[in-house]
Design goal:
This protein is an alpha+beta fold. It is 24% helix and 32% strand. It contains 7 helices and 19 strands. The strands form 3 sheets. An 8-stranded mixed beta sheet has the order 3-1-2-4-8-7-6-5, covered by helices on one side. The chain is globular.
């Protein structure tokens, strides 16, 4: 945590000073941000864990040919997208943002609350999965899978069935004691067909921020768990003829967790110094303590309820959080 007397606004650039400071809560952190992030839960001003400022970043910008520029060091991580902006993470507690021309806060929030926040949380010692997570009573279900597998859709169906969202897209696990899922913020990203088939009455659909982004943001007003929940089961989603759950042996569970860990999206270059060993140790610890299963979800949104019922029965039958 940053010291309580840490300045809450960057003073290195006049554009930064002109922006108002907003306070939020997410992933157990108090965030002070000069970028508006209505996706997050508002917070009263307090001692700040993460400071987000806007201003120039003196690092090479992406070329039109590459479109992106990434740099990973022990104390700093730099991510830049030509059409959105540049983001510099320092000491796992500060994010500097330089928007691309004519880019507004709503578009900046997409990478900021996705890969940028994931890397910051990773630097803070958490294991980050590219997944969705739902609280089911005192237990939890984590949904991993390839793009289009239906992670957010399955999470939405679970919320519709009366369960609570823990986090979507970026799942942060604290492995200090027993694995715990740290709650993110109350938003799901859903494709139009999934949103139409599984309407969430307590959700506000936010305006589309860019024509190239096909999923809509659904801001929940209810149906969110603000408390950390023990990690109980990880489900790797695949399409199938009928809903089924198959426990994976540990020899298959570890590679699956590594594959869907968020940092692997950036390749080995993101695992600087001792982080390679730390990351492998974290993935192995999770695989050894949490049941990992293959979940076949029937094709067709009208049958998603079959998968929900199977998940509920699976978690109810497992009081110890281990595959029987």
């Amino acid at each position: 945590m940053m010291p309580a007397n840490m300045p809450l606004a960057a003073d290195h650039h006049h554009a930064s000073a002109a922006r108002a400071q907003h306070f939020y809560k997410a992933y157990g952190l108090t965030i002070a941000s000069q970028i508006e992030l209505p996706e997050l839960e508002p917070s009263e001003p307090a001692s700040v864990d993460v400071l987000i400022t806007v201003g120039p970043i003196d690092l090479p910008k992406p070329s039109p040919e590459t479109g992106t520029a990434f740099r990973f060091e022990a104390r700093q991580q730099y991510l830049a997208w030509q059409t959105v902006g540049a983001f510099l993470i320092t000491d796992a507690c500060r994010i500097e943002v330089e928007p691309a021309p004519d880019v507004d806060d709503a578009l900046l929030a997409f990478p900021l609350l996705g890969p940028v926040m994931a890397l910051l949380l990773h630097q803070r010692g958490l294991l980050i999965l590219h997944a969705s997570a739902i609280a089911v009573g005192g237990k939890s279900a984590v949904f991993m899978g390839d793009k289009g597998a239906g992670k957010s859709t399955t999470a939405s169906a679970m919320i519709r069935a009366g369960h609570r969202l823990l986090t979507d897209d970026v799942v942060a696990l604290d492995l200090a004691d027993r694995p715990m899922i740290v709650p993110g913020f109350p938003q799901l990203k859903l494709a139009a067909d999934a949103a139409a088939a599984i309407p969430l009455g307590q959700a506000e659909i936010r305006p589309q921020v860019h024509a190239a982004i096909d999923k809509m943001q659904h801001r929940l007003h209810g149906g969110f768990s603000a408390d950390a929940v023990p990690a109980t089961r990880i489900y790797i989603l695949e399409r199938g003829d009928k809903a089924s759950i198959t426990p994976l042996p540990s020899i298959s569970a570890l590679p699956a967790i590594i594959k869907f860990s968020y940092v692997t999206r950036f390749g080995r270059s993101a695992l600087v110094g001792d982080f390679t060993k730390t990351h492998l140790r974290q993935c192995a610890a999770l695989a050894s303590q949490i049941g990992v299963c293959r979940l076949e979800v029937p094709t067709g949104l009208d049958r998603i309820g079959e998968a929900v019922a199977l998940i509920e029965a699976d978690l109810a039958a497992d009081d110890r959080g281990a595959v029987s």
